[in-house]
Amino acid sequence: MREEGRISNWQLFMLIMAFLIGTSTLIMPVGPAKQDAWISYLLAGALGVGVAYLYTSLGLRFPKETPFQYAPRVLGKGLGTCLNILFLWYAFHLAPLLLLNFSELYVVAIMVNTPLMVFIGIMAALAAWAVRSGIETLGRLAELLTPFLIFVILVLNILTILTPELPRWENFLPVLGEGILPVVRGILPAFTFPFGETVFFLNFFPFLTSPRKCRYPFVLAVVLITFLLISVLLRNIAVLGPLEANRANFPSLTAIQLINIGEFLQRMDALIIFIWTFGVFLKLSVVFYVFTLGTSQVLGLKDYRPLVLPTALLLTFFAPTVYEHFHQMLRFASRTWPFYFFPGYFLYPAILLLVAKIRNIKG
Asked: Residue 301: CB partners within 8 Å, gap ≥ 6?
């Protein structure tokens, strides 16, 4: 593994926030909780803080190694390698999902006559370039772009509220009108996407300048993005209502297109699409990087960079096949992904930490 780069804890903080923003602010299904979905997201954020403690506990125990390196030592070569391969599959599966989500947004909202593969290929090539440049490039990109992402999202939230007669606050009533059960049912999908997906940052801890101080930026990023996502969700429900917000493919885009202040401040969707492009690009680059780095470590290669181009080609051709239509993806994300990804975001790190403590294995 040749990765001489290092990132600061501040850059890790920015990377995690950009990763959590990713497609989360673009695809935010209200789910079974309907107008109470914000409660589900609040509780999901609390679970996100819990798994942040789990992940950083592993990082603090093995500050100079990735899970691909210490899993065979902790669990034995056979079981450790099998779990590493399963984890790699999750990374490989998530990457084309991100590519297809991004590309469908462009085809639906901007260039309706452009073939989908054009956007998939361009984004895969850009992500490959960033990954090949190393982890420092990812950290600096996040440091540059993330504040801009957050600022624009907050400004658009404010403009939505200021648009006359656009937000309808009665859409939030009645609170808990169908009881607590729908809220509980909405917690796991909201937690898995996006908070559970931060498990991929287990592979970033060895490249921190201060790996012993990884917990604070990780937890703080989860807390801040929880409230940012809730603000976006509240905006969508206030503007569209819970039923339409749940039915729309891109509810945030639909809500922002309705901004109209003084008959001149309108058509803000181009700006938010530009922002989502950055967010998806950073999230895709993180998952892409983890897959190539992990594959090189599992195979015992000295460098991950020769794997970057073949991986980009695989993702490009695999992306159009991951689902047939957008609503199939939404059903998969809300009903299947939380259970399908459960071994990756919980069992994998939990078993590693538990067995390492029992066997008193440290990095």
From this structure: 1, 295, 307
Structure tokens given for 269: 């969707």
Nearest 10 degrees: Cα torsion 55, 61, 63, 67: -60
9-358: CATH superfamily: Amino acid/polyamine transporter I (1.20.1740.10)
Cβ-count burial 139-151 (b if 16+ within 10 Å, e if not): bebbbebbeebbe
Whole-prediction pTM: 0.94
Residue whose token pair is 């950073």? 282
Close Cβ partners of 56 (under 8 Å, ≥ 6 residues apart): 205, 214, 215, 218, 219
The dihedral through the CA atoms of 257, 278, 228, 100 has a sign that is positive
pLDDT tens digits for 11-33?
999 999 999 998 888 888 788 88
CA dist., res. 299 & res. 48, Å (int): 32
| Tokens coding 332 | 């998969």
On the 0-12 / 13-18 / 19+ scale of CB atoms within 10 A, 163 is middle
Tokens in use for 298? 């599992």
CA 16 to chain centre: 8
Length of the chain in residues, anyone?
363
Q: How far apart are the first and last CA of the chain?
A: 17
Q: Where are the domains of the chain?
A: 9-358
Contact 273, 110 (CB under 8 A): yes
At 86, is the pLDDT very low, low, confident or very high (cuts 50, 70, 90)? very high
